[in-house]
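quick one: magnesium ion bound model?
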Amino acid sequence: MSDYRIGYGEDIHRLIEGDHLLLAGVRIPFGKTALAHSDGDVVYHAVADALLGSLALGDIGELFPPSDKKTVGLDSALIVKKAVNLVGENGYRVTNIDVVIQLERPNVASYKAAMRSNLANLLGVSLGAVSVKAGTNEGLDAIGKGEAVKAVAVVLVEKAQ
Ligand code: MG
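yep, here:
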């Protein structure tokens, strides 16, 4: 295979009444929460799918089937770790990653540094290799109406020497 491979992942979760959002492992107090089988960390899910996609290793639904009762309330950091380990077992390592979070509220700007730090630790890369961006959907569609939160991730991996 080539020295470099690219992966793309995205995920969306419905927002329901609750008391926090979990984004890249950062707990953000808020009046809604992600409806999910796992802990509902939409960023980690998008990142895991991007990692798996980079080496055509399937998707997180195959790795952690929602039908499996063991995935109820699952810590999504474990999903990312599993994907990182699979990338490593296949002879590659993460070069850099770029993440976009789409949600109408709350403003998560002050949490982005903690999200980058969590992702850098999980992926085994420096902070400079992790980008986290966030924006609203300008009031449009389900995200804009505050009914959903979405994350998109693109990752580059390179052959380990
Ligand atoms: Mg998900």
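DSSP finds five helices and seven strands in the chain.
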